[in-house]
Specification:
The protein has about 230 residues and is mainly alpha-helical. Helices cover about 70% and strands about 5% of the residues. The chain has a domain at about 10-145: Tetratricopeptide repeat domain (Serine Threonine Protein Phosphatase 5, Tetratricopeptide repeat, Alpha Horseshoe), CATH 1.25.40. The relative contact order is 0.06.
């Protein structure tokens, strides 16, 4: 039987029961949460029931968070099956080996163990879920590694370049604005000068008209020639 712990990936099978008194004592200590005592009893039982003792030692070591040793114990519990019960125990041992290896940081062994569980039983949903989880996590890590690493000095240089560019843009805008203002001022001065010149020409024309002889001054009166 398997139990689901707090972490989704970690689904651990319980210790196996046996007629061996040391195994029974170890299981009792395990149920009481005395995992260190349970492990010692399982080790003492290994001479009479090596497969079951190793398997149970793995469950106790896992609870003690000694994941590397737990993986080794589960691996040692796997043997060529002589009957259906041993085959089922191998299947659970492989499954727990995968979980223990994953917690120990050995992701490759964990994936291989889960694949072996699935090959032995294509309907094992827990193993499939765990393998999918690991493959998805591995893919995400690979994608992250492929992304260019940040260079603090390069980031600093880029920031300084951006600041310099912004400063140059501001100075150029200021110069453009000053040039536009100067052009407007020159245009106003030209227009004012043109108006003043036109006024002077008109005044001079009027003054010159008054100085002309009357014979040259045209009149709107029509002279009769009869």
């Amino acid at each position: 039987m398997r139990i689901v712990l707090s972490f989704l990936l970690v689904v651990l099978t319980l210790p196996v029961f046996a007629q061996n008194s040391l195994l029974r004592q170890g299981n009792k200590a395990y149920d009481e949460g005395k995992f260190g005592q349970a492990f010692e009893l399982y080790e003492r039982a290994s001479s009479k029931s090596p497969q079951k003792a190793n398997y149970n030692s793995g469950t106790a070591l896992y609870r003690l968070k000694d994941y590397g040793a737990a993986a080794k114990a589960f691996e040692n519990s796997i043997k060529e099956p002589e009957n259906k019960n041993q085959a089922l125990l191998n299947q659970d041992a492989l499954y727990n080996l995968g979980n223990s290896a994953y917690k120990a940081g050995d992701k490759e062994t964990a994936k291989q163990a889960m694949r072996a569980v699935i090959l032995n039983n294509l309907k094992d949903k827990d193993a499939k879920q765990n393998l999918q989880f690991m493959l998805k996590q591995e893919k995400a890590q690979n994608n992250q590694c492929q992304q260019p690493k940040e260079n603090p000095q390069q980031n600093k240089d880029n920031q300084e370049n951006k600041q310099n560019q912004d400063k140059q843009n501001q100075e150029q805008q200021k110069q453009d604005q000053q040039q536009q203002n100067q052009q407007k001022q020159e245009q106003k001065e030209k227009e004012a000068s043109a108006k003043e010149e036109a006024a002077n020409v008109l005044q001079m024309a009027q003054e010159h008209k008054q100085d002309l002889p009357k014979t040259y001054v045209r009149s709107n009166q029509i002279e009769k020639d009869w």
